[in-house]
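Students often ask why we bother encoding 3D structure as a string. The short answer is that it lets us treat folding as translation between two languages. Here is a chain of 91 residues written in the first language.
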Amino acid sequence: MPVLTLMQNGCSHKIPFSAPISLQQVLQDAGVQAEHPCGGKGKCGKCAIRLAGNVSEPNAAEIAAGTRLSCQAVLYGDATVWLASATMEQI
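And here it is in the second language, the structure alphabet:
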């Protein structure tokens, strides 16, 4: 089973998941609340993250935003995400 390593405020958390799945869904299932004022449509950029690993290529919304977005990224295997505490609540 793939694992998402969540990095926030100098701490790491391991979250197993079944792939493929959206990063937003994995975070929600783990109790991490992210801002999504646009309803997860990739238009506001409030869920900007740093992401590495076996993940989808940036889509048009992410390219336009100039960053990866938790509402748009899809996880295919092991990955690491770095969250800013200002945009997402701590778990």
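Translate back mentally: Strands lie at 3-8, 11-16, 21-22, 48-55, 68-69, 74-82. Keep this in mind for the problem set.
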